[in-house]
Amino acid sequence: MRGSHLLLPPISKFGHLLEVPGESRVVFVLPYKSQTLLGTTEVQHTLNETVEVSKGEQAYLLNLYNHYFTQPCNETDIRSKYAGVRPLLSGKDSLSKHSREYKITRNERLITVFGGKWTTARALGLAVLNQLRK
User: What are 16-69's pLDDT values in tens digits?
Assistant: First the structure.
């Protein structure tokens, strides 16, 4: 799954979770290095695709942002953008319903992590450390 993010001008010193109208998911708006980080999307990604923010994802995030904030942003306000891909443990029809669980495998000195999400990052980090201690 690919998640994309936009870096916008600063709007607030507080973080916000925005409920996506008509969907059962949220997008965050966070202060980040004197700017605003907006994200993330959840888009099916195939191995042969370039990992980048699509025009559709960019429009999706800006439309959501403008739905909630009175000072609108458009393409010219985007200071930077980035996308990332994470593997999921199992397939589901709705990307937002994918498990946030993770699986750790070890083959001698190689530790591989599958799945997970930023909400599980601390627990995942501790689990990887425990694998290293074994």
Answer: 999 999 988 899 999 999 999 999 888 888 888 899 999 999 999 999 999 999
Cβ distance 115 to 88 under 8 Å?
yes
Alpha helix (H) residue ranges in the chain: 55-68, 121-133
Peptide bond into 46 cis (omega under 30): no
Would you say 40 and 5 are in contact if contact means Cβ atoms under 8 Å apart? yes
Q: What are phi and psi of 77, to 5 degrees?
A: -85, -10
C-alpha–C-alpha distance, residues 61 and 73, integer Å? 10
Full-model pTM: 0.73
Query: Which long-range contacts link 90-97 to residues 24+ away (Cβ below 8 Å)?
Result: 94/24, 95/1, 95/42, 95/43, 95/44, 96/23, 96/24, 96/25, 96/42, 97/24
Question: CB-side exposure of 12: number of CA atoms within 13 Å?
Answer: 13
State the DSSP code for 52: S
